[in-house]
Each structure stands twice: as structure tokens, then as C-alpha cells.
Amino acid sequence: LFDLIWRPYIITKRFEKQGVRGPPYKFRMGAKQEMKDIQKGAETLVLDSRSHDIACKVLPHYQAWSSQYGTTFLYWMGTQPRICLGDPEMVKQVLSSKFGFYAKTYPGANIMAIMGKGLAFIEGSDWARHWRVINPAFHIDKLNMMAKTMAECVLHTLSEWEKQGNDNKTLEIEVSRQFEELTCNIISHSVFGTSDSINGKKIFEAQKELFLITIADFNGSMRYLPTKKNLKKWKLEKRMKNALTSIINSRLDNSKKLGYGDDLLGLMLHSSFPVNDNNSSLSIDEIIDECKTFYFGGHETTSQLLTWTMFLLSTNPEWQERLREEVLKECGTETPNTDMLSKLKLVTMVLWESLRLYPPAILLARDASKDMNLGGLMIPKGTGLMIPILMLQRDKEHWGEDANEFNPLRFENGASRAARHPNSILPFSIGPRACLGQNFAMLEARLVFAMMLQRFSFSLSPKYKHSPVNWLTLQPQFGLPIDLRPLHQ
Ligand code: HEM
């Protein structure tokens, strides 16, 4: 009864005294039912494809509560108090904390099974040990080397499209699926250097199927029972593990002749058999978990960046033309190298505007691991801290009245100067747990659009329905059908 009635009552009162209010706590459920009701109303909404005001569709409860209680508010997820942070200064304090006071929220067994207990979900000295091994795989010199491999993968996809579009005719392609395949291919080849495309494919297919099962059923209460769904899940998990083990074993078998390699997998294997540095070694099980993290995290988010940018360029033909001019000026019709890509200022501005309006990760979550004072607000241990990236990135107070409009010019002087507060833009997060793959993803996206703009012009197919949904990442619910026209035959 203490946890179910008294504690919620006391905590609610304490927050009220500090000026933080929110939807009322209901016995055991907190605000879960109210949240479900609000979400249900938004589920079937289809928006006008010129509207980027998508909070009403993907975070309708946050929108409703923040307009009623202010952008920083309290709500109860069952018996856990959660504070939604609407102030970029508080967000900065939480994300920049170096001492693990705000730990990552446990994502649930289903997500762990897909992504593995890798860098994104571990804490403390384990995180530091993994980070020391993995970080060098993303240094700038390594990225420069990866660009060539990335370009080969992009060329392969675009040539397939060219082959389909005979006689200068318009060709309709559902690009979100194509981008998923392309980003999978890029991560396998450039980060794992794998020519083992069969096992690479098996991993992605197993992760995708597990993911679809997970979004259809978040109820973990039966997770140990041999239900039909669980048997399927266990089979897929096993298939994924076997495929990863096979990739690792083949690298180990070839290591006498070729060494472990200097890509991510090679660096992890080096650490696993260290000569003198035992402080940063990873076990084979840990390597398998990291592979899952990078296979999934490395493509799922980037493919959404490509998808939403394609959507924005298709609906803003004048920007598409400006970008094409820039690409042809800096790269001509050659395959772009990293020097050329670094000169694509307008392309980069459009990518940032896309990440602002359609961030692949719309929310970040942390838990206070002890009682904390957050910018004067007393936060009891165990409170969840929710950082609504999607809301912060379209807050009119920081972005101005045109916050919901597509206007890449706001990024003319760089991302940190685009809004009134430098941390109002957070697609890759900030602080010690910021995205390790940010430069990789931006390089990949610049390359894809440079090569695509060299070859095609495109517009939205009339079949498109504007219905963004948050299925772990922000996605177009019915895909993104695009009409493509080859520029040269
Ligand atoms: C547009 C593409 C991407 C976006 C928007 C994105 C976004 C993010 C965000 C928001 C986080 C922080 C999560 C949190 O704090 O809870 C994160 C972490 C991470 N991302 Fe990305 N990501 C992208 C691409 C990539 C790629 C391509 C890779 C790998 C090749 C990658 C690897 C990681 C890893 C390993 C972490 C965990 C870092 C840590 O906790 O130390 N990401 N990403």
C-alpha cells in the first residue's frame, strides 16, 4: 500500500510544491490508461503530406499534457514517476552527467534480445571498457576508408533502380524498404568487412522478424512460456547467434593468414586475445552482443534519416534542385570522395533539418540512480527522466514561429547555432553517451543523396499516406512510394 498509494501521493505533492504538475495518478496504473486513450485517438490519423506538425500523431499524450501542464510535467507509468523535461538546460545537465547518476532506462527483454547487451545499454566500467575497444573503429581516418566501400554499395542499389527504369520512364519505388536493405549492406561491408553476405542477411532478417513480433506484442508477462510466439522468437534468436558465430569463426580461422582485420570486428577480436592490455578485453559473448547492437543500431536509424530526407526533398522540388546544383558543382558526375562530400553545405543543412523535423529516435529515457537536484528541482531516486527529442526540436520558444516548417536555412551557421539554445537539437543525443555512429551516419547520408541527385529526379507518389509512427524509430507507417525519373539514359 505504501508503494501503491502513499508514495505516489507524497511524490505528487512534492512536485506540485515545486511547480511541476501532470495527469493524476490512478491506482496501480498511473496515467497508463489516459495515455492509451489519447494514443488510440491518434492511431488512425493520416496527416496532410505538407504538414510536419506530427507530434499530434506520434506523441499525442505528450502534446496534450504539455499544453495542459507546461513542457516540464510529471506523469506516472504504473507506480514509476516520470518527469518529461521540456527545458534544454535541464536536458543538457542530464545527458552531460559523467558519473552515471542518470542511468539508461532498461529497454525491456524484447529489445535486449534484438539489440544485445552492447554499448548502448551497458553502464559504468563495462561501458568504458567496451567504448575503449570500439571507438577507434569510427575515427576519421577509418571513415575515409569506409567511404569507398559505402559508395560501392550505393552504386549497386542505384544501378538496380536504373535497370528497372527503362526508356526514361517514371518508375515508382517504395524507398523505405530499399534504404533499409542499402543501410544493412553498408554496415555489413564497412563495419564488419563481411563478404559473408549470406550470414549478414540472416542476421538482418532475424532482427527484422524479432522486431516485428516485438512491436506487435509488448506484453512480456508470458515470456518464459513455450507459446507459439515465444518458440518462434527463440528460434530467431538462435538463428541470429549462429550466423554471428559463423562470421566470427570464419574471421578467426583466416586470422593466421590475414590477421583479425582493422574494422570493428577485427578490433574487438584483437581485444579478445590481448597481448598485454587486459583492461580492455571483450569476451566472445560480449562481441556477439556488440555485433547485434551495431547491426541493428547501425542501419535502423540511418535508413529512417534517408527515408525522411527523401520525403522532404520530394515535397520541396526547389530544394531538390538547389542540392543537385551543389552536388554537380562539387562532385560533377564522379563518385564523390570524402573531400567532395565535406563541401556539400546545402546537403548537410537539409539533413539536419530532416533530423530536426523527423528525428529517428524521438525520445530518450534515463532513470535517476539516486536523489538528485536537477537545476533546482528535487528528483527522487528511481524517477524516470524523459527527453522528448521530437517536442524539443519543434518548440516555438526556441525555434521561432516557423518551428513546424521545413526551412534548412536555419542551419546555415551550423547545428549548435540554429536555435536559441544550442541543445535544442539532439538527434544524436549529447554528452558521454552520444551516438558513436554520428559521423558514419552523416557521411553515409551525404554520399547517398549526392549519388542519387546525380542520377535521378524524384517526387512523391500520389499513393503516399502521411502517417508517421514510432516503431522504435520514427517511420512512415505505409512506406514511402516515390516516383523516380532517371536524368540520363
Ligand atoms: C541517423 C542515424 C542515427 C541516429 C539518429 C542515431 C541516434 C542515436 C541516439 C539518439 C543515441 C543515444 C541513445 C541514448 O542516449 O539513449 C545513439 C547511441 C548510439 N548509436 Fe546512434 N544513431 C544513428 C546512427 C548510428 C550508426 C550508423 C551507428 C553505428 C554504426 C550508431 C551507433 C550507436 C551506438 C553504439 C550508440 C550507443 C553509444 C553509447 O551509449 O556509448 N548509431 N544513437
From TrEMBL:
InterPro entries per UniProt: Cyt_P450, Cyt_P450_CS, Cyt_P450_E_grp-I, Cyt_P450_sf, Cytochrome_P450_Monooxygen
Required cofactor(s): heme
GO biological process: lipid metabolic process
Gene3D superfamilies on file: Cytochrome P450
Compartment(s): Membrane
MF-aspect GO terms: heme binding; iron ion binding; monooxygenase activity; oxidoreductase activity, acting on paired donors, with incorporation or reduction of molecular oxygen
UniProt keyword Signal, yes or no: yes
SUPFAM superfamilies reported for this sequence: Cytochrome P450
Keyword presence, Iron: yes
Keywords: Heme, Iron, Membrane, Metal-binding, Monooxygenase, Oxidoreductase, Signal, Transmembrane, Transmembrane helix
Residues given in the record as heme binding sites: C435
GO cellular component: a single term: membrane
Family per record: Belongs to the cytochrome P450 family.
Protein name: Cytochrome P450
